[in-house]
């Protein structure tokens, strides 16, 4: 039998999808607003975690120069190098992204950058007539190089292994639709002498 009325479970699913799309749009607008504020103040695009690491390092040097013991500072700087576990805003973000078929596998990146990466990957994946992993990887790399500075790298595929060294706050590994995996990371730019 055919009915023109949608079942309640389909309506609830569509409402959840629309809610997710709206939250991603809002996060993208917040990202745009934040980028504009940074440009107005002519600030460099140093992540908060890097600023904190620099502050801790400055305090270490100052204490060393003053001759004080700096064991507590060593503990603080050692904990900065580890990847953060999912907690606080990360859990909420993971739940939101799960609704659109994205699962975060491993992360060391601020939430607004994660949203940007997932949004860019999803739009690129959906817009390509003939999808290729290379096209998606190149698009993500160019986008992040343009917005967050050079030295971004991207690997896209269904089955690959990796071991990478990345900058603090510059690592994201996620899956889309449980079959396509994306690894996005940033390295440190060193000038040739």
TrEMBL record:
Residues 15-83 are annotated as: Disordered. It comes from the Eukaryota. GO terms for cellular component: cytoplasmic dynein complex. Residues 15-33, 48-75 have a biased composition (Basic and acidic residues). It comes from Gossypium laxum. GO terms for biological process: microtubule-based process. GO terms for molecular function: dynein intermediate chain binding. This is Dynein light chain.
